[in-house]
């Protein structure tokens, strides 16, 4: 009989320990889903923004070094051949603008998935220009961009704020009618979920 009580007590202890561990894991998951998206956005935005700062010598004035790189140095390595950029100065201006604007959009979380897609596309082009840089730079950048596209902007973003405001405005019109319908159908507390039974305590009572 004493051995059975020991096993029962041990089962109850394991049950409560598992419940506590589950609560900790749930808290970590919630904290991760809050903190991970902005950190991913910042990690991807910083290298592109720093590169974009070197492209300009003033407002929409391309720096001589950027013009030289796109006209003389940068080439696309495709199928074993090296090809110069078409309209290199136009491409240099577009790249310089994208390297400033897309990281800013990422950091503030506005149009997040589209901004990440734009930087992912730029990473693919950079891979064609510098094929040997895929392990140190291009693969991590692509992984960050894909992670942002997959999980979205997160809670700490303007996209989330806009989505909440839009949802609130769309739901404000039918809110009163929905409440009155629920009141007519039943008592105010009839649709509240019942608390789950304490299974750990049930083990002890057995």
Question: What is the structure about, briefly put?
Answer:
Helix content is about 75%, strand content about 5%. The protein has eight helices and two strands; from the N terminus they run H-H-E-E-H-H-H-H-H-H.
How does this structure look, described?
The chain is mainly α and about 210 residues long. It has helices at about 1-55, 65-75, 90-110, 110-130, 135-150, 160-170, 175-185, 200-205, and strands at about 75-80, 80-85. It has a domain at about 35-170. Strand 1 (about 75-80) and strand 2 (about 80-85) form a beta hairpin. The protein is elongated, with a radius of gyration of 28 Å. It starts with a helix and ends with a helix.
Topology:
Blueprint: H1 2-53, H2 64-73, E1 75-78, E2 81-84, H3 88-108, H4 112-129, H5 134-151, H6 158-172, H7 175-185, H8 199-205
Antiparallel strand pairs: 1-2
Helix pairs in contact: 1-3, 1-5, 1-8, 2-3, 3-4, 4-5
Could you spell the SSE succession in H and E letters? HHEEHHHHHH
Uncertain residue ranges: 180-190
Residue share in helices?
over 70%
Estimated structural class:
mainly alpha
Main sheet summary: 2 strands, antiparallel
Give the tally of β-strands: 2
Give the count of helical stretches.
Answer: 8
Rg estimate, integer Å:
28 Å
Quaternary organisation: single chain
Overall pLDDT level: 85
List the strand order in the largest sheet: 1-2
**Shape, principal axes of CA atoms:** elongated
Distance between the termini: 13 Å
The proportion of residues in beta strands is under 5%
List keywords for this structure.
single chain; 206 residues; mainly alpha; two-stranded antiparallel sheet; 8 helices; 2 strands; 74% helix; elongated
């Amino acid at each position: 009989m004493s051995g059975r009580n020991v096993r029962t007590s041990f089962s109850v202890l394991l049950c409560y320990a598992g419940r506590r561990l589950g609560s900790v894991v749930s808290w970590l998951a919630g904290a991760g889903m809050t903190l991970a998206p902005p950190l991913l956005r910042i990690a991807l935005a910083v290298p592109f923004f720093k590169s974009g700062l070197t492209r300009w010598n003033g407002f929409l004035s391309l720096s001589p070094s950027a013009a030289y790189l796109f006209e003389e140095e940068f080439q696309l390595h495709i199928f074993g051949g090296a090809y110069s950029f078409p309209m290199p100065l136009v491409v240099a201006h577009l790249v310089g603008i994208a390297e400033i604007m897309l990281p800013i959009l990422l950091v503030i979380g506005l149009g997040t998935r589209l901004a990440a897609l734009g930087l992912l596309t730029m990473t693919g082009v950079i891979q064609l220009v510098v094929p040997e840089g895929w392990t140190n730079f291009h693969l991590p950048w692509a992984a960050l961009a894909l992670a942002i596209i997959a999980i979205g902007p997160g809670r700490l973003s303007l996209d989330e704020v806009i989505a909440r405001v839009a949802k609130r405005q769309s739901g404000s019109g039918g809110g009163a009618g929905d409440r009155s319908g629920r009141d007519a159908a039943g008592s105010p507390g009839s649709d509240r979920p019942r608390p789950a039974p304490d299974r750990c305590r049930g083990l002890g009572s057995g």
